[in-house]
Write a structure and sequence with these properties.
- The protein has three domains: 86 residues, Double Stranded RNA Binding Domain, CATH 3.30.160; 108 residues, Orthogonal Bundle (DNA polymerase, domain 1); 209 residues, hpI Integrase, Chain A.
- It is elongated and about 90 Å long.
- It is built from 18 helices and eight strands.
- Helix 4 packs antiparallel against helix 5.
- The strands form two sheets. Strands 1-2-3-4-5 form a five-stranded mixed beta sheet, covered by helices on one side. Strands 6-7-8 form a three-stranded antiparallel beta sheet.
- The C terminus is likely disordered.
- The chain is of the alpha+beta class.
- The longest helix is centred in the middle third of the chain and has 20 residues.
Length: 427
């Protein structure tokens, strides 16, 4: 590992330098204040200070949330306290033992909101924090908040409400930066994007600009599953299997019996079929089969003229339109019964087969399953080339448990029961 670059400038730092510097090292200013730039690009303000004869370092937050002027102000304040025999480090430790995230939000907003002239902007700041962050982080001490806590807040809305999630992340970062400067926590900011969350979450621009396929709302899943289970035909069975395995419709339509191991309860999809982004030279994608998926497979007929599991009437593979047609008929039947149909909660368009994967992804996030495990279930590429070289496990058995829980969620007939009650009342 290269030795850290240490520079003691003849002149003090400038705001422009702090914004643009990228070379790892330590860049000093005054009163022991320096900017630490790590190899991953993250930056942190640190102050070297002698407190009652003992030399130590205090973290003062990270730019741009904590600008140069604010870092200097805090460093000068700490220097003055130490010169008078005070202990800013002890004050920080005492404060960090008491302040929760909810309290930090209140303290921060009491200062920050006065900067906004726009009343709508002030309300949005508080609303996003109250709606998404406080329910999860509210009671947690700011000193204990880590990256995984931030992900619990962001992941459920990162794909469906990308712009809101992007702003929320920045606001959480600002609150925690204030908490660091005020002495309530130390270390790196877990809500920081560059070199931190950017390595875990997809870029907002890539998510927001994508024409997402209409998905089934989680609140409608159980009712939809009841309707689908009552449908006859091979296309309806294929759609059931796709939902149980969170697989692409193409992989399901082209699935063959020699890919299925009923004893080991595994479906092995050859490279190039599980995902268009996985080359044919890659590794097979293994799908754990739940009891529900096995029962469905065992109920299917087999014919000698086709090796496909879900065959068309003439023996070939089902067409993609056949699964879409089932989705349209389910939606139409709902409309005819005086209900709203099966609509995407965001776009208000009727759900389509590929959107069912988004439904599963949202469920997995809200249930707290690890991101990598959920992404593997969707046959998505996880991590960099280096990470994949060392992490060769596909978490098969852990995914089996997750998919079993997903099947139980699908079988929850509460939604279907409510629908039947409503229909009876209408009669």
């Amino acid at each position: 590992m290269p030795k850290a670059n240490i520079r003691r400038q003849e002149r003090k730092l400038t705001a422009r330098f702090v914004e643009t510097v990228s070379e790892p090292g330590k860049y000093f200013d005054g009163h022991g204040l320096f900017l630490r730039v790590r190899t991953n690009g993250s930056k942190q303000w640190v102050q070297r200070i002698t407190i009652r004869g003992k030399r130590c370092e205090l973290g003062l937050g990270s730019p741009p949330a904590v600008p140069l002027a604010k870092a200097r102000e805090r460093a000068l304040e700490n220097h003055g306290k130490a010169m008078l025999g005070g202990d800013p480090l002890a004050e920080r430790r005492e404060a960090s033992e008491k302040l929760s995230f909810s309290q930090a939000v209140e303290k921060y907003l009491s200062i920050k909101l006065t900067e906004f002239r726009n009343e709508k902007h002030r309300k949005q700041w508080r609303s996003t924090l109250d709606t998404y962050a406080i329910p999860i982080l509210g009671s947690k001490l700011v000193a204990e908040i880590a990256v995984q806590d931030i992900l619990r807040v962001l992941e459920p809305i990162w794909w469906e409400k990308t712009e809101t999630a992007k702003r929320l992340r920045g606001r959480i970062e600002n609150v925690l930066s204030w908490a660091t400067v005020a002495g309530h926590r130390s270390g790196d900011n877990p809500a920081r994007w560059k070199g931190n969350l950017s390595e875990i979450l997809p870029k907002p621009a890539k998510v927001a600009n994508k024409d997402n396929q209409p998905a089934l709302a989680l609140r409608d899943v159980s009712r939809w599953w009841v309707d689908l289970s009552n449908r006859e035909g091979m296309a309806a069975k294929a759609l059931q299997f796709a939902m149980l395995t969170a697989s692409r419709s193409g992989a399901v339509r082209l699935a063959t019996w020699d890919e299925i191991d009923l004893t080991a309860r595994i479906w092995t999809i050859q490279p190039g079929r599980a995902s268009s982004k996985i080359p044919a030279s890659g590794n097979p994608h293994r799908v754990p089969l739940t009891e529900e998926a096995i029962s469905l497979l065992k109920s299917l007929p087999r014919i000698t003229v086709s090796h496909h599991i879900f065959f068309a009437p003439r023996g070939g593979a089902l067409s993609d339109m056949s699964l879409s047609a089932v989705m349209r008929r389910l939606h139409k039947a709902e409309i005819e019964q005086g209900l709203q149909g099966y609509l995407d909660p965001r776009s208000k368009r009727p759900a389509v087969p590929h959107g069912l994967r988004s439904t599963f992804r949202q469920w997995a996030a809200e249930q707290g399953y690890p991101r990598d495990m959920a992404e593997l279930a969707l046959a998505h590429t996880v991590g960099s080339d280096v990470e994949r070289a060392y992490q060769r496990s596909d978490m098969l058995e852990r995914r089996r448990e997750m998919m079993s829980a997903w099947a139980e969620f699908l079988k929850n007939t509460e939604g279907g029961a409510k629908k039947l009650i409503k229909l009876r009342l209408q009669k």
